[in-house]
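User: Reviewer 2 asked us to show a designed sequence for the structure in our supplementary figure. I'm pasting the structure tokens here. Could you produce the per-position amino acids so we can include them in the response letter?
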């Protein structure tokens, strides 16, 4: 089962299964809960079985409407969300979800193009996995995302505010304020990337290392993905001088040039 590869999703096929919450194995009370939103019945069943076999408490849904019903019935620790769903797409569902929740989300999609990966990164998804994929890879990525979230929750409360050039990033409130005190809108990916820079100021960081250090790490992300994200972050940090404290080190990566103070 661990090495089995899944079939590719075919849009337009019927979706006969309603929302289900089956249990094939006994689940401990401390098991992490996963909501799998996938409209392909065979893929949904195979994936859910594999996750349960690895100790996760799994609920499934085939549409966005079923996803909302599942979330209303109880909190989950992570959502595996297919992009190509009937009705509302996974992208639309993710945008609505982020208005009220920061639950980790891993996108899966038969459309494995670089543009889709870039979009997922920019929106702030925690990972992106193209189909077809093996169960071992999905389980490894779920584990990595959950561990990153747990590590963040266990960080000490002190030193949660980082300040540079009059800007202030609050790790606790998950917000950035300009030197004028205005709240700056950041996607989840932009926030995590900025926090990564602030934790390693005045040091050159390679593109792949930035992806690894950021909470939005994706093993199949490209240099273009991180370049796009850095460009968006630069625009939001540009001050009256027209410069942002992120410089490109040709052939290597990027460096955050400002001094950083912790409060």
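Assistant: Here is a per-position design you can include in the supplement:
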């Amino acid at each position: 089962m661990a090495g089995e590869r899944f079939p590719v999703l075919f849009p337009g096929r019927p979706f006969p299964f309603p929302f289900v919450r089956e249990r094939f194995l006994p689940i401990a009370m401390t098991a992490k809960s996963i909501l799998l939103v996938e409209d392909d019945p065979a893929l949904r069943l195979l994936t859910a079985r594999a996750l349960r076999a690895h100790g996760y408490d799994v609920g499934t849904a085939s549409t966005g409407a079923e996803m909302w019903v599942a979330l209303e019935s109880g909190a989950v620790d992570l959502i595996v969300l297919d992009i190509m769903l009937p009705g509302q797409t996974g992208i639309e569902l993710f945008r609505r979800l982020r208005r009220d929740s920061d639950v980790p989300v891993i996108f899966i999609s038969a459309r494995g193009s670089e543009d889709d990966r870039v979009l997922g990164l920019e929106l702030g998804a925690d990972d992106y996995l193209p189909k077809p994929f093996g169960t071992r890879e999905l389980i490894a990525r779920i584990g990595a995302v959950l561990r990153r979230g747990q590590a963040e929750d266990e960080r000490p409360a002190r030193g949660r505010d980082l300040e540079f050039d009059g800007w202030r990033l609050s790790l606790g409130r998950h917000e950035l304020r300009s030197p004028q005190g205005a709240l700056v809108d950041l996607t989840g990916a932009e926030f995590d990337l900025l926090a990564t820079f602030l934790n390693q100021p005045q040091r050159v960081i390679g593109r792949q290392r930035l992806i690894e250090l950021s909470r939005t790490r994706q093993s199949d992300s490209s240099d273009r993905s991180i370049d796009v994200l850095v460009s968006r972050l630069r625009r939001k940090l540009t001050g009256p001088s027209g410069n942002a404290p992120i410089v490109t080190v040709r052939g290597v990566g990027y460096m955050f040039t400002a001094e950083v103070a912790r409060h």
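For the response letter, you might also mention the following. The chain has two domains: 33-153, 161-262. Helices lie at 41-53, 64-73, 90-97, 114-123, 135-153, 188-199, 207-213, 223-237.
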